[in-house]
Amino acid sequence: MKMLRSSLLAAPLALLAACGDHPVSSEINDGTFGNATMNNSLLQMGEIDATQALGQRFASEVEPTITFPFDSARLTPEAQRVLREQANWIRQFPEVRFRVYGHTDLVGSAAYNKSLGLRRAKAVVAFFASQGISPSRLEALVSYGETRPVIPVATPEERNRRTVTEVSGFIAGRGMSINGKYMAVVFREYVSGATRVHPANRVIATQVAPGG
């Protein structure tokens, strides 16, 4: 009996030892646990505003940046893929405005690069319009030209030839405070998620033999 009891105690101890130095909870928590509660608290206390909160969310859920070929405003297939993801995110938030910043590398004159950066930003806006997003939701296009390089080199650098899409604010005239608008966004998503049809409840069509 004593041997059996020892064996039963040894089994869970061996299992815990097999887990190594990592606690079981670390397999569950991916590092974002509690973020929603923290952000809501910060909003209520005024530590962050709704625009900043949505901007951080946009940048974390989709890639906000695309790059361009040298001396070009052409959207590559990879850039279009990223912009489609951005457009899908933007469509979920009809009360939110966005801005697009165009950038260039350090090759060429400042005047030419400012114009090129603006053309790149306009190319992104045109693509969003093709995805069903109203241009009125996009704030005045701003081009930083060559003044904000990611990599400060005078040679061609793809990472500098880019546009960046950002949240700029909420559409005016809704009669709500800025934090109220953000709470409305969160509540709408909550309701939508709660009413989504579960995959297990799909109706399976029956096949009927041809004829008759």
TrEMBL record:
CDD domains: OmpA_C-like (cd07185)
Signal peptide positions on this chain: 1-17
Any one Pfam family match given in the protein's UniProt record, by short name: OmpA
Domain of life of the source: Bacteria
Keyword Membrane set for record: yes
Keywords: Cell outer membrane, Membrane, Signal
All residue ranges annotated as the OmpA-like domain in the record: 55-171
Compartment annotation: Cell outer membrane
Entries under InterPro entries matching the protein: Bact_OuterMem_StrucFunc, OMP_bac, OmpA-like, OmpA-like_sf
GO cellular component, one term: cell outer membrane
Chief place of localization: membrane
PANTHER family reported in the protein's UniProt record: LIPOPROTEIN YIAD-RELATED (PTHR30329:SF21), STATOR ELEMENT OF FLAGELLAR MOTOR COMPLEX (PTHR30329)
UniProt protein name: Outer membrane protein OmpA-like peptidoglycan-associated protein
Organism of this sequence: Cereibacter azotoformans
